[in-house]
Amino acid sequence: MSSLLQLITLFFFLVALSILFSSTPVHCDDDDDLLQGLNSYRIARNLPTLAKNKKAECLAEELAEEIKHQPCAAAAASNATQQLQLANYPSILNKCKIDINYTSDGVVMQVCVPNRVSTLVLTNFTQSYYSRYLNDSRFTGAGVGSEDDWVVAVLSTNSPEGSFSGGYRAANAMEVGLMMMLSPCLMGMFLGLEIFVGMVINN
């Protein structure tokens, strides 16, 4: 009977977990679609795909937020693009908990497409001077962010200088805090299900 109880409890626990995570919002949007498009471009050229880099994604999102009110004409010249990507750069790095010493080998790419038409956004990256970076196997990770008509893609490397790392202590503290918040909820759910199943079987 005890083994049956354990099996039933495990079953309900797995069902509860699937419901919990399926009901959790997932960041699956145009930014993810663009990353998939960039990876398809690289696969077609026998290059390794770009893994999602959370720090690079944070930087891309913050830069997109910073430049969202700029007109698309500002992206026409590479010089203007360079100036835009450096706006409030130190404070943005600090917000994403990135050490500036881990950014020198990375690349920030940004395009502006009215209404962010997905096919045009992709070609603005793959059919422009940015393609030289997308064709470079040194880049192994990426983060994408978008606001209004602007899309920013940040490419990272496996080398420390391009990993967009740093701020490990703060990041670990956040992860531990999240685990501490989630663990009691999951444990409470597990215990509640076990008690419920036990009551049903005893009856």
Keywords, please?
203 residues, alpha+beta, four-stranded mixed sheet, 8 helices, 12% strand
Explain what you see.
There is one protein chain. With 203 residues, this protein is an alpha+beta fold. It contains eight helices and four strands; from the N terminus they run ααβαααβααββα. It has helices spanning 2-22, 30-43, 54-67, 78-85, 89-95, 118-126, 131-134, 168-202; strands at residues 51-52, 107-112, 139-147, 150-157. Strands 1-3-4-2 form a four-stranded mixed sheet, with helices on both faces. The protein is globular. It starts with a helix and ends with a helix.
Strand adjacency order, main sheet: 1-3-4-2
C-alpha geometry: globular
Radius of gyration: 22 Å
* Percent helix: 55-70%
User: What is the structural class?
Assistant: alpha+beta
Short précis:
The chain is an alpha+beta fold.
Question: Topology of this protein?
Answer:
Elements: H1 2-22, H2 30-43, E1 51-52, H3 54-67, H4 78-85, H5 89-95, E2 107-112, H6 118-126, H7 131-134, E3 139-147, E4 150-157, H8 168-202
Parallel strand pairs: 1-3
Antiparallel strand pairs: 2-4, 3-4
Helix pairs in contact: 1-8, 2-6
